[in-house]
Amino acid sequence: GIGILDHVEQVAVEGLTWVDVQQPIPSEIGRLGEAFPVDPLDLQVALQPHSRQSVVGREGYAIVRLDVPAASRRTRALETVPLTIFVGASFVISIHSVDLRSLGRMFREAQLDEQVRRDLLRRSGEFLAHQVIERLIAGCEVLLGELADRLGRLEAATFLEAPTSLGSQGVREGLNEDVSEIVRAGWELRRDARALERAARSILSAVDALRARASTLPGQPLQVEWADLDGRCDRLIRALDEQQRTVSALAVTMASLVQQRTNRLLSGLLMLTGIGLPLLLLASIYGMQVRGLPLAEHPYGFEAVLLAMGLIVVAGLALFRRQGWL
């Protein structure tokens, strides 16, 4: 066995052991190399944050490197993090640097429930790896549903259908008139959808490689099971692509709405300027300290000037309405 280590947990049933390593340190990785027939250099590569996604065959085991989605602790945005899985005849080792919600829940279920543990570890290392990847895909599908809900709220806010919260980033309610918040929510949605799509494509690549290598892995071949996961990944990627196209269309619509709002504001300013300039000119003329101004000495001169200014305003409004600007 590997003994008790801070970042390493394990479950075992009838000759098959699943070891889960979160936030590994080199000394613990070295202990894994002593306990299982795995090349220490391969284990060290698993510590590298930017190792290339692939499926590599070794004598007695296979190495599966893929990217999976996880929420950033600092921003809560979706990002991709590396996951390395070593698949052997008598062991499966999963190594990851952050807490993966779906994988962690699956491992705790195997620890606490004997029946779940037996169901997962009853056949082969390949079957357990299949179940792990299947759970990761199911987690991606849950995230896809959350993105779809956010997209619906974004559409409602964009088209002023309902004042509603725009997402999980603490955006307040009633933002359908706040263009900057709607644009930010759309950008966040597109960012998360892209991260999820990168993870889905990485998982699909791993599934394709495992499907091709199924007959060479220890245990009974699982070509049909891998083909099912392949189809689910493909549908997930198509749905994410459709979501991103919808977000892009909403961005174009929002830009058009912003332009229309800007045009209305400019039209209002131009109308105000068109009415105000004659009034300003009239006030400036009568503000001159010179003699001979019309109505300057008339007893009702002030009222007459006010009436003239009012007529200018009415005439300007009538002209703008006739032109269809009001």
Encode the helix/strand succession as letters. Answer: EEHHEEEEHHHHHH
Q: Quick one: how many beta strands?
A: 6
Which strand order spans the largest sheet, edge to edge or round the barrel?
1-2-6-5-4-3
Helix count equals 8
Distance between the termini: 82 Å
What structural category arises from helix and sheet content? alpha+beta
Rounded radius of gyration (Å): 34 Å
Report low-confidence residues grouped into runs of 5 or more: 161-176
Shape: rod-shaped
Please tag this protein with its features.
alpha+beta, six-stranded mixed sheet, 8 helices
What does the model show?
The protein is α+β, with helices and mostly antiparallel strands and 326 residues long. It contains eight helices and six strands; from the N terminus they run E-E-H-H-E-E-E-E-H-H-H-H-H-H. The protein has helices spanning 26-35, 40-45, 101-112, 114-121, 125-158, 179-212, 223-286, 301-322, and strands spanning 8-13, 16-22, 54-58, 61-71, 78-88, 91-96. A six-stranded mixed sheet has the order 1-2-6-5-4-3. A hairpin with a 2-residue loop joins strand 1 and strand 2 (16-22). Helix 3 crosses helix 5 (125-158), helix 5 packs antiparallel against helix 6 (179-212) and helix 7 packs antiparallel against helix 8 (301-322). The longest helix has 64 residues, at 223-286. The radius of gyration is 34 Å and the shape is rod-shaped. It starts with 7 loop residues before the first strand and ends with a helix. Residues 161-176 have low confidence and may be disordered.
